Amino acid sequence: MRRRWFVPGLQASALLLVLVYASLIPHVDAADARSDLRAGPESWVNDLMPLSSADWSRDRAAHLLERAGFGGTPEEIDRFAAMTPEAAVDWLVHYQKVEN
């Protein structure tokens, strides 16, 4: 019997990459539709303008760390919340500058 999930010629690493990417796609259910669980207001949908310092908060810092893929300890979240949004993103993007 032939397995339907097998794609001939597709390397295992490429298949793994596809599965990881698919797991990152948000699933919308009734809880996610609640406005208090969203990362921002409805007006931010499809808005690619930078987040202002006035909109930056501890919750948004925690959300950024979660979306970056690894989350953060309460202390790291507090440190990120004390930064500007630009500094927090810069810290994540230019991680080579950070001491081990």
Give me some keywords for this one.
0% strand; 100 residues; 4 helices; single chain
Task: Note the main sheet.
Answer: none
The count of strands amounts to 0
Work out the strand percent. under 5%
**What pattern of helices and strands is seen along the backbone?**
HHHH
The average pLDDT is 74
Number of alpha- plus pi-helical segments: 4
- Residues in helices, as a percent range: 40-55%
N- to C-terminal distance: 51 Å
Helix-and-strand structural type:
mainly alpha
Shape: globular
Low-confidence spans: none
Specify Rg, calculated over alpha carbons: 18 Å
Structure in a nutshell:
With 100 residues, the chain is mainly alpha-helical. The protein is 42% helix and 0% strand.
Per-chain topology:
Blueprint: H1 12-24, H2 58-68, H3 74-82, H4 85-93
Describe this structure in words.
It is built from 4 helices and no strands. The protein has helices at 12-24, 58-68, 74-82, 85-93. The chain is globular. The N and C termini lie far apart (51 Å).
